[in-house]
Design a protein that fits this description.
Elements: E1 4-5, H1 14-18, E2 24-25, E3 33-34, H2 44-48, E4 54-55, E5 71-75, H3 85-89, E6 95-102, E7 105-113, H4 123-127, E8 133-137, H5 138-144
Antiparallel strand pairs: 1-4, 2-3, 5-8, 6-7
Length: 149
């Protein structure tokens, strides 16, 4: 079973706008639908839905308030082993591998996350053998980059 939008849907469109897979469609103020052939099961829609109209694959509604901002994956370049497991398994192609040259010889590399593509599904965190991947709120990332939080 994939995520399912129930009759509680108010048609606000937040889920459709934030779904990078393009799996959610619907008219404004009408119940939206998820295309199972496109859904990557990341849970972004489930975490953001203001009416808790979306059921997770286990048939559960989100408890509590919806997130006001999405967490994004970050990777500590110093802790990254360069194994590329996160990059090869990211359902949104949000992770890039960067080779490092050491003394004119190709050395190991590290990965980084494109925050525009990351949906905070945490696939990389569960797979990272060194623990270099973590989730960080968008406002924290903006403050670290010198923007407004």
């Amino acid at each position: 079973m994939i995520f399912e939008i129930t009759g509680r849907c108010a048609g606000c469109g937040i889920c459709a706008r934030r779904c990078l897979a393009g799996a959610i469609a619907g008219e404004r103020r009408a119940r939206h639908h998820i295309d199972p052939s496109l859904c990557k099961e990341c849970g972004t829609c489930w975490r953001l839905c203001p009416t808790a109209a979306i059921l997770d694959p286990a048939g559960r509604r989100r408890a509590g308030k919806p997130l006001k901002e999405m967490p994004r994956a970050t990777i500590d370049a110093q802790g990254c082993a360069g194994c590329r497991t996160c990059q090869l398994n990211c359902p949104f192609d949000a992770i890039t591998y960067h080779r490092r040259w050491v003394h004119w010889v190709l050395g190991t590399g590290s990965c980084s996350v494109n925050p525009e593509r990351c949906q905070g599904c945490a696939t990389c965190i569960g797979l990272c053998p060194t623990g270099a991947a973590s989730l960080t709120l968008e406002s924290t990332l903006r403050r670290a980059a010198g923007g407004r939080g």
